[in-house]
């Protein structure tokens, strides 16, 4: 299947630095279908009923004040109004029958509610409407109950302990500019949380990138020489020149045999293994690169920011420690 380089995704959290960025995977796009014949015009619809008067707006000051440990005073008046809508209409996930706002005020031990409120505040500060935030939060928290993908990773392409409670898998393309932008954020997050996170790289070379396969071949070859991460970093640092003829010199800089790599690049070496990684991505519903999964749960690109990755990690740890459920307050 063909892959094109950019995909506009519906952001789960619109505030993130890489919202909507990614190299699109055309292999996952649906084939074009034959247009259906035009239907006969429908009869005119009856006039709509009179519109009921709108309910009185929620008082932002009353909703947002008096919450222990949280201060929303820096938000604009518009953002406060939208956040008040979220706190008044969205429910928390602490097992209590209260709105998010009521939980924040009466159940101060619920750390989950505070995480939700911080994310909601970030979203409205970036211009999202309260109703949109509620939908996106519901989609995000609903994703924890969806079926998880299973991945076969190579420990030589992972950083962190295999016994870490959370495995973060990234499908990436060395020639994808969005992967290059996400790289320092994801790796910094993994290193900061080394005791809780194992971070694994899975190559997914896109057919739209002419040098993606040779670059991935070079990375797997370097892995077999014990220098995967060194080659991984060098490839991203030289992303503008990943032509096959340029890669042997890169190998030499790493103390590897450039002539042997040149021979590998002229063969089909590693291509079957690369197809295996691509098959894993397709099975997981990958729509582009970079694609990130926490314990097999797809994480929206808008989480590719340290603060939001940390939020998702805390949620994942809570979900796992409570045997696939949210902790009650």
Report on the architecture of this protein.
It contains twelve helices and seven strands. 41% of the residues lie in helices and 8% in strands. Helix 6 links the parallel strand 3 and strand 4. With 329 residues, the chain is α+β, with helices and mostly antiparallel strands. The N terminus is likely disordered. It folds into two domains: 108 residues, no CATH class; 141 residues, Glutaredoxin (3-Layer(aba) Sandwich), CATH 3.40.30.10. The protein is elongated. The strands form two sheets. Strands 2-4-3-6-7 form a five-stranded mixed sheet, with helices on both faces. A two-stranded antiparallel sheet has the order 1-5. Helix 2 crosses helix 5, helix 3 packs across helix 4 and helix 4 crosses helix 5.
Summarize the structure.
By secondary structure, this protein is an alpha+beta fold. It has twelve helices and seven strands.
Query: What share of residues is helical?
Result: 40-55%
Secondary-structure element sequence?
Answer: EHHHHHEEHEHHHHHEEEH
| Amino- and carboxy-terminal Cα gap | 48 Å
**Mean pLDDT value:** 84
Content-based structural category: alpha+beta
Low-confidence stretches: 1-20, 29-45, 49-57
CATH level 3 topology of the largest domain: Glutaredoxin
Strand order of the largest sheet: 2-4-3-6-7
CATH architecture of the largest domain: 3-Layer(aba) Sandwich
% residues in beta strands: 5-15%
> Whole-number radius of gyration?
24 Å
Shape: elongated
**How many structural domains are formed by the residues?**
2
- Tell me the name of the CATH homologous superfamily of the largest domain: Glutaredoxin
How many E-type strands?
7
Protein name: Thioredoxin domain-containing protein
Family: Belongs to the thioredoxin family. DsbA subfamily.
InterPro entries: Thioredoxin-like_fold (IPR012336), Thioredoxin-like_sf (IPR036249), Thioredoxin_domain (IPR013766)
Organism: Myxococcus landrumensis
């Amino acid at each position: 299947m063909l892959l094109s380089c950019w995909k506009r995704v519906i952001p789960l959290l619109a505030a993130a630095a890489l919202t909507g960025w990614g190299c699109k995977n055309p292999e996952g796009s649906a084939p074009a279908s034959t247009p259906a014949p035009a239907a006969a015009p429908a009869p005119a619809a009856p006039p709509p009923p009179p519109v009921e008067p709108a309910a009185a707006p929620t008082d932002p000051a009353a909703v947002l004040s008096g919450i222990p440990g949280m201060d929303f005073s820096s938000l604009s008046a518009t953002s406060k109004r939208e956040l008040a809508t979220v706190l008044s209409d969205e429910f928390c996930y602490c097992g209590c029958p209260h709105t998010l706002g009521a939980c924040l005020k009466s159940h101060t031990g619920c750390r989950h509610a505070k995480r939700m409120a911080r994310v909601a505040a970030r979203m409205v500060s970036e211009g999202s409407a309260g109703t949109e935030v509620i939908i996106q939060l519901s989609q995000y928290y609903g994703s924890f109950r969806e079926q998880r993908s299973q991945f076969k990773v190579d420990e030589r392409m992972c950083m962190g302990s295999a016994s870490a409670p959370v495995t973060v898998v990234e499908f990436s393309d060395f020639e994808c500019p969005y992967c290059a932008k996400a790289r320092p954020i994801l790796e910094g997050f993994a290193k900061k949380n080394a005791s809780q996170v194992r971070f694994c790289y899975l190559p997914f070379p896109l057919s739209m990138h002419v040098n993606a396969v040779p670059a991935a071949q070079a990375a797997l070859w370097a892995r077999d020489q014990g220098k995967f991460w060194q080659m991984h970093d060098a490839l991203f640092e030289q992303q503008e020149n990943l032509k096959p003829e340029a890669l042997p010199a890169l190998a030499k800089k790493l103390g590897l045999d450039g002539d042997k790599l040149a021979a590998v690049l002229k063969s089909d070496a590693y291509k079957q293994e690369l197809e295996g990684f691509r098959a894993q991505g397709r099975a997981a519903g990958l729509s582009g690169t970079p694609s990130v999964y926490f314990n097999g749960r797809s994480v929206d690109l808008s989480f590719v920011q340290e603060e939001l990755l940390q939020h998702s990690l805390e949620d994942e740890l809570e979900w796992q420690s409570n045997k696939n459920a949210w902790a009650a307050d």
